[in-house]
Design brief:
CATH architecture of the largest domain: Sandwich
Distance between the termini: 75 Å
Number of helices: 5
Largest sheet: 5 strands, antiparallel
Strand order of the largest sheet: 3-1-9-4-7
Number of strands: 18
Radius of gyration: 24 Å
Low-confidence stretches: 1-21, 36-68
Order of helices and strands: HHEEEEEEEEEEHEEEEEHHEEE
Shape: globular
Helix content: 10-25%
Structural class: alpha+beta
CATH topology of the largest domain: Jelly Rolls
Number of domains: 3
CATH class of the largest domain: Mainly Beta
Length: 334
C-alpha cells in the first residue's frame, strides 16, 4: 500500500521538478547576460506589479527595482570624412559608443535630440531593428552650417538597453571635409551613475544669482572631442561649497557641440549644439530640455568640484576656437 502511494508521488515530484529545473537554467542564463537586478525588474514589469519583487532585494521593503543608479544624460558624437551622397557610418569620438548602456529594463531610455554640423547639406539616419524600422528609421535632411535640433521638441524616441544603434551621415564630397553628428541620450536610471539633475521649476524656486563663466576652448581639427579645460581655468568666481545650476550657454563660433562633465554628471558629458546664432535657444538649453520633456535635465554642480568640472567641444577640420559662456544660477540650499 505504501509502495503504491510512493510511486505516483515520486513521479509527480519528478514531473514538477523538470519544468522548475528548466526555468532555473533559463533564469541563470538571463542573469549571467543582463544581471539579476535587470531580470527581476523585467519579471516585475511583466507581472504588472513592480512591488512584487521588493522582498527579493537586500534591505527589505526600501529596496526597489531600479534603485541601482540615478538619472543620467549623455551627449555622444561621431563624424565622417567626405561622405558625398553616400550614407556613411559614423566614426565615434573617443570614449563614445552607439551601444546603449545597460540599464534596468523597466526604466526608460530616450533619444532626446540629434543634430549635425554640415559643410554641405546631407542626410542623418538613426536606425535599429528595435525602432520603427531598420530601413530608413529616423531620417532627417540636414542643412549646411546649421547646428539645430532635428527631432520634434518634446517627442523623444524610446531606446533599449544594450541595443546598438546604426547612425550614418552624408554630406560634402570635398576631400578632407568633416561632417559630424550628435545624439543626446537620457536614462531614467543608469546603474553606477549618480548624476545631479533638477527640473526647471526647482531652479526657479531656488535661484539666487546668475553667474557667467567664460572659457575659450582650443578645439582640434580631427572631428572628435578636444580642447578640454577646467570650468574655472579662466574665470574662478564660484562661491565656496555652493550649488550652481547650469541653465544654458552661448558660443561665438559654430561647432558641432559643447559639453560639460564631472562627478556631478556621473562623469558623462552633458551638452548641446554649438550654434552661435540661436542664442535664445542655447542660453536656456537645459531649462528647455526640462520643460519640453518634463524631466530633471538641469545639471547641478557644486563649487567644491570646480577643478574637476571640464568643458570641451567637437569641431571640423577648420578648427575654429569658440568662446563659451556658461550660464549658471546660484542655488539656495534645499
Amino acid at each position: 500500500m505504501r509502495f503504491t502511494l510512493l510511486v505516483p508521488l515520486t513521479l509527480t515530484i519528478l514531473l514538477l521538478a523538470t519544468p522548475i529545473a528548466s526555468t532555473l537554467v533559463l533564469l541563470a542564463r538571463a542573469v549571467g547576460t543582463f544581471g539579476w537586478r535587470a531580470v527581476l525588474a523585467s519579471l516585475a514589469v511583466r507581472s504588472g506589479d513592480p512591488t512584487a519583487i521588493r522582498p527579493l532585494f537586500p534591505g527589505g521593503a526600501a529596496a526597489r527595482a531600479g534603485e541601482t543608479g540615478g538619472i543620467a544624460w549623455e551627449l555622444i558624437t561621431g563624424f565622417v570624412t567626405a561622405p558625398s551622397s553616400t550614407q556613411t557610418a559614423l566614426t565615434m569620438s573617443t570614449g563614445d559608443s552607439l551601444a546603449i548602456r545597460s540599464a534596468p529594463l523597466d526604466k526608460m531610455v530616450r533619444l532626446v535630440q540629434a543634430w549635425t554640423d554640415q559643410q554641405t547639406a546631407g542626410v542623418l539616419r538613426v536606425r535599429s531593428p528595435k525602432l520603427h524600422d531598420n530601413v530608413q528609421g529616423i531620417r532627417y535632411k540636414a542643412t549646411a552650417s546649421d547646428t539645430v535640433p532635428l527631432l520634434p521638441w518634446g517627442g523623444a524616441q524610446r531606446l533599449y538597453p544594450t541595443d546598438v544603434l546604426s547612425v550614418d551621415l552624408s554630406g560634402s564630397a570635398t576631400a578632407g571635409d568633416i561632417e559630424s553628428a550628435a545624439l543626446l541620450v537620457q536614462y531614467d536610471d543608469l546603474p553606477g551613475i549618480a548624476g545631479r539633475f533638477i527640473t526647471a521649476d526647482e531652479v526657479n524656486k531656488r535661484a539666487i544669482n546668475i553667474l557667467t563663466v567664460e572659457n575659450t576652448i582650443s578645439l582640434g581639427t580631427g572631428g572628435g572631442w578636444s580642447g578640454s579645460e577646467a570650468i574655472n581655468a579662466e574665470y574662478d568666481l564660484f562661491k565656496a561649497n555652493t550649488d550652481y545650476a547650469l541653465v544654458g550657454y552661448m558660443v561665438d563660433t559654430e561647432c558641432l557641440a559643447i559639453a560639460w562633465r564631472g562627478a556631478d554628471t556621473g562623469n558623462l558629458r552633458v551638452g548641446g549644439p554649438g550654434n552661435e546664432t540661436l542664442r535664445h535657444v542655447t542660453a536656456e538649453w537645459f531649462m528647455r530640455l526640462s520643460k519640453g520633456y518634463n524631466l530633471p535635465a538641469v545639471p547641478v554642480f557644486n563649487s567644491l568640484n570646480k577643478a574637476g568640472i571640464s568643458i570641451d567641444g567637437t569641431q571640423d577640420e577648420n578648427g575654429a576656437d569658440p568662446l563659451v559662456q556658461s550660464l549658471f544660477v546660484e542655488l539656495s540650499p534645499r
